[in-house]
Each structure stands twice: as structure tokens, then as C-alpha cells.
Amino acid sequence: MRKFSIEMLPAREGDCLWVEYGELSNPSRLLIDGGTSETYQEVSRRIKELKTPKVHFDLLIITHVDADHVGGVIELLKGQKIDVSFDDIWFNGYRHLPGALESFGPVQGETISTTIDEKKMPWNMKFKGRSVSVTQEGDLPSTTLAGGMKLTLLSPYSQQLTELRPVWQEECRKAGIDPSQPTPQAVPEQTEGLETFGPLDIEALATTKFEGDKSVANGSSIAVLAEYGGKKALLAGDAYPEKLAESIARLKGSQESKLKLNSFKLPHHGSKHNINQQLLQKIMCDRYLVSTNGNIHKHPDREAIARIIKFGSLKVELIFNYQNQFTQVWDDIHQKQKHGYSTIYPDSKKMGKIVNL
Length: 357
Known about the structure:
By secondary structure, the protein is α/β, with parallel strands linked by helices. The protein has helices at 40-48, 67-78, 107-118, 158-175, 202-206, 216-219, 241-252, 277-280, 302-311, 325-328, 333-339, and strands at 2-8, 17-23, 28-32, 55-57, 59-61, 84-86, 89-90, 142-144, 150-155, 223-228, 231-235, 259-260, 263-265, 283-284, 287-290, 317-320, 342-344, 353-356.
């Protein structure tokens, strides 16, 4: 009997996806991001549950350099306490940004780059050591992992990597990093103001004017279409919705057809800047996965979830890996009956959620 599951580990405000596929008794594994630095404890716990001296993953994808995605990866790669191995690691370091001449980058990105280099780990092997990116023309890059899962790259495009370069340089300068001798340091947590929430009016929220994500780091995010056993999942990192829609149109070869999905892990934790009608109209999907505890940025945004309910399928199912004030608001029986959607939360006080496709 075969499986294809996506586990959203409790990564606080971040992402850490543990994907298993293949034979139930001996599945293959894919790890996407590591959440915040505190998430390492969850990754460690999950690995120890396997009760094996060494754990192997077909692939590690580090979608982009944001503290809520890479914090837990750093300790994992250092490998002081847990023995893990990977067939390949997909990660765009400074050297992969168009026009880059030196091998340095923002603090956490440089920590990852240095660790991969020092341990001689496989790095962007599928892309012959070059950037993990989509070109404007030709077929979208795709590969089949050793366990039989097919991955098709949807983001980032070369333009987004180019735009990241000057930002990366500036972060190095602010951290006092010497480009010739980078020294990793801790990154301070970013905060932003609290939002004021009004009544839950799904129609009004869904039709608010869309303003796209302007974060160049998010634009550089790796997003993939994962296919196994006839099932498909879109794992979007923090990617721009416009670029996801563009790639999906190229993937299908027609602007008219929709991509049928069994699950869609929302980009940027359900931010209103990363979900729009254009993207939702390119797909046909019932299950939408949200990874965040709402800390710092108060995700998921109500506008994003409302757009999914209004412009998604007729039978929307919202799946959260945390149950709190930002997710619980959608567990409203009157809104569910009126708009025809359902919600799924963690099974107990222990956060995190496994989704079986």
C-alpha cells in the first residue's frame, strides 16, 4: 500500500513541511524548510520517532532566506546531534543570484552556504550547481526523485533572483560581514504592527483590492508542483501569486485550462498579498493548507481566506496546523453553511497537522 502525505510541523509563524511518499512500511521523504530556529526541536523530535541511526531524505528544499523558513534548517545541517543525509539540497545562495561575483550573503543564508560547502553536501545538483530558477521560455524544469515523486519548478524566475542581489548585499553590510570572510551572526526578529479586525464579511473581504507582495526575498522563493501516485500538491513557499499563475499557464500549455490539485499549501502563510483571484482561477482544488501560528504578522489574513472561499472550488476545505484566534474565526457554523466551506484543525493541544492525499 502506498502513501503521499504532507505534514505541516508546528513551525510557529513559519514553514516546515515533512513530505512522505511510497511504501507505507518504508516511505521516501522530502523536507521543505525548517521553520524558525525553535522549530529544530520539532524536526529533531520527528526524526527521533523513526528510531533509526541515520535518516535519509531524497531532497531538502530551502525555499528562500527568511528567518521563519531557514532557522531550523541551520541546526539540522550542522548535524551535531542528528545524522541526516540528502540526495540533493535546493537552495539559492548569493552565488546563484545573477551578476553575483562573491560567495557571500545575508547572515543566515551565509550560514547555510558555509555549512553545505564545509560538509561537501550535494547542492543544486539537478541544476548542475547553478540557480534553482525558471527561465522565461521553454519547458518548466522538472525532475523525478529516487522514490518516484515528480517535482516541477514553478518559482522563482531569474528576474526575482536578480532583484534579490542588492538586498542581500545590503543585509551583509548591515550585519558587518566581510564579503571575503563571512561570519554568520544571529538575525533579529522582525515585527510589524497589529491589524485591527472588523466583522467577518466574506463577500467584502474577498473583493478588497489586491496589492501584490513586494518582498524581494519572497519573490525568490522556490515553489514546486509535487506529483505522486496520481495525486498533485502545490507547495508554494512564499512565492508571488503572479509568477505561480504564469507557470501554471505554461505547465498546462493553455490559458483556458485549470490545474487539478489535491492540495495547495498557501504561499506566505495565507498572506493577502500572495493570494489573488488570478491565481485561484488557474487551479481546481478543494483542500488549502495553512502553516502559521499567527505570531508577528498575524497570518492568515482574512482577505486571503475569503478569496479562497469565494473564488476557489465549490467545496473548499481549510486545513490549519494551529488553532488560535487567527484560524478559529473561520470555524463559524453560520459562515460555513452560508458559503459552503469546512475547516480542519490539529487533533489536540499539540499543534501540527498531517494531510493524507
